[in-house]
Amino acid sequence: MEKTIRVLNKTLNAVVAGTLIALVLLVFSNVVLRYFFRTGITWTVEVSGLLFVWLVFLGAIIALKDHAHLGIDSFVGKLPLNAQKAMFTLVNSIIIAVMVLFADGVIGAMALNGSMTGSATPIPVNVMYAAGLAGAVLMILICIAQIIDFVFFGKGGPAWSTADRKHDGEAHAE
Fold first, then answer.
1. SS3 helix, strand, coil % of the chain, rounded to 5?
2. What tens digit of pLDDT does each residue of 27-38 get?
3. Is 60 in contact with 131 (CB distance < 8 Å)?
């Protein structure tokens, strides 16, 4: 299981890096064409926007997975371990609820815009909405996995958690 997660991690990071490189190359080439040659490639604007949307959602997935989203944890880090686990479960449950609502909205938008394509390309508009749906589903799965790992096994908790220190014998007695 750990090997599968590592492979998925590397794949996700590689896709994000590739998306960012493609985005930079498209925008840069279009800027050079417009500045020096007074022309441009019309479809690059649309494809760049699409790549940016995917980049944002994939980056949000990575940030959630790595516990890198902003948070105020000075209070939670001082709580006893069981209270930390309860707060972690509460926060992740709220994230799951919001992602379910978000996914529902995205599915509705996909149903409304199912036959639409971009103005400069034949790419369906739903490819952009698919980024939101993929992001929501993966974030839900990550939150569930993190709750299980941290609450039941005391592993993979956020930086403020005393669970890992407790296993190392460094935490204070509760």
1. 75, 0, 25
2. 999 999 999 999
3. no
Measured between alpha carbons, how far is 169 from 147 in angstroms, rounded to an integer?
23
Buried residues in 62-101 as b, exposed as e (16+ CB within 10 A): eebbebeeeeeeeebeebebeebbeebeeebeebbeebee
- Mean pLDDT on 123-129: 96
For residues 45 and 17, what is the distance between their CA atoms, to the nearest angstrom?
A: 19
Q: How far is CA 131 from CA 58, 82, 110, 163, in A?
A: 8, 36, 11, 34
CA torsion 133→156→62→98, rounded to 10°?
Answer: 30
What pTM, to 2 d.p., does this model score?
Answer: 0.86
146-174: per-residue pLDDT in tens?
A: 999 999 998 888 888 876 555 444 444 43
